[in-house]
Amino acid sequence: MTDIEAPGSAGTQLPRGDHEFTVRQRTQTQLVLRRFVRHRAAMVSLVVFVLIILWAFIGPHLWHYSYQKYTEDNSRPPSLKHPFGTDSSGYDGYAQVMRGTQTSLKIAIMIALGSTLLGAVWGAVAGFYRGLVDAVMMRIADLVLTLPLFAIALVISSRTGGSWYWIAIVIAGLTWAYVARVVRSAVLSLREKEFIEAARALGASDTRIIFRHLLPNALGPIIVNATILVATGILTETALSFLGFGVQPRTPPWGCWSPRRRRRSTPGPGSSTSPARSSSPSR
Q: Comparing C-alpha atoms, which of 183, 155, 169, 182 is closest to residue 111?
């Protein structure tokens, strides 16, 4: 780099503006993580979600009552000793709510992961190949969408003994088609982009194009549908447990608060002032 003399000022040296700089290449994952960290609402939601998980899975080990053990306090209203009160059998409501949250989270997360993985791959393959492959695969997805989710989940759950993982597998197997349709629509648009043509010109295989280029760029709608499936899983599992066909009371989910619970509860201040009391699982 050479120095030039500034006009109008004798003896003043100014550097030439040809500075060297380097550009660091970032992967798709690094770009996604960088945008996520800079999004305040996303970070706040992540912190709240982590706190709920810690409360559900670590809280029961720190709380002085177990959801499986009786106490001498029957039908007590909320207090410092029992924040969510107790039922007529003496079970602590706060311990049962923590256990119910743990069970419901496991079911919901398993449903979201299973449905999202299967639906994303199914939709990406159908959208990428189009033609006959697309027609056959999406007709299968349409057939799954016509099946009555709640009725089939109720029948299979009653035959499998109410195991939480069987309930999650059944619901995931009937909801993946929603993700497949959304991902297919995104892939149909992405496959015509210039970077896909460049990958083909460089000799990239179809598998690499689908998993390395198409699915990462369709991550937005995939994440949105995954969050919706979490809510769908919780609501479906809750309805099954409410009717007595869901998870068995030995591992109570949120849906185990039922008319049976309300019939056993003695009316008192806690039954009307504490919403959490009415949502604690029954035995």
A: 169
Q: Among residues 100, 130, 114, which one has the least CA distance to residue 190?
A: 130
**SS3 per-residue string spanning 228-280:** HHHHHHHHHHHHHHHCCCCCCCCCCCHHHCCHHHHHHCCCCHHHHHCHHHHCC
Q: Which amino acid is at 64?
A: H
For residue 88, give the amino acid letter: S
CB proximity list for 9: less than 8 A, separation 6 or greater: none
pTM above 0.85, yes or no: no
Residue-wise pLDDT for 82-141, tens only, equals 888 887 777 788 888 888 888 888 889 999 999 999 999 999 999 999 899 999 999 999
Supply φ then ψ for residue 15, to 5 degrees: -75, 150
Pick from 167, 147, 149: nearest CA to 159: 167
DSSP 52-89: HHHHHHTHHHHSSS-TTS--S--SPPS-SSSTT-B-TT
Cα distance between residue 108 and residue 236, in whole Å: 10
List, for residues 44-54, the tens digit of each pLDDT value.
Answer: 988 999 999 99
Buried residues in 74-103 as b, exposed as e (16+ CB within 10 A): ebbbbeeebbbbbbeebbbbbbbbbbbbbb
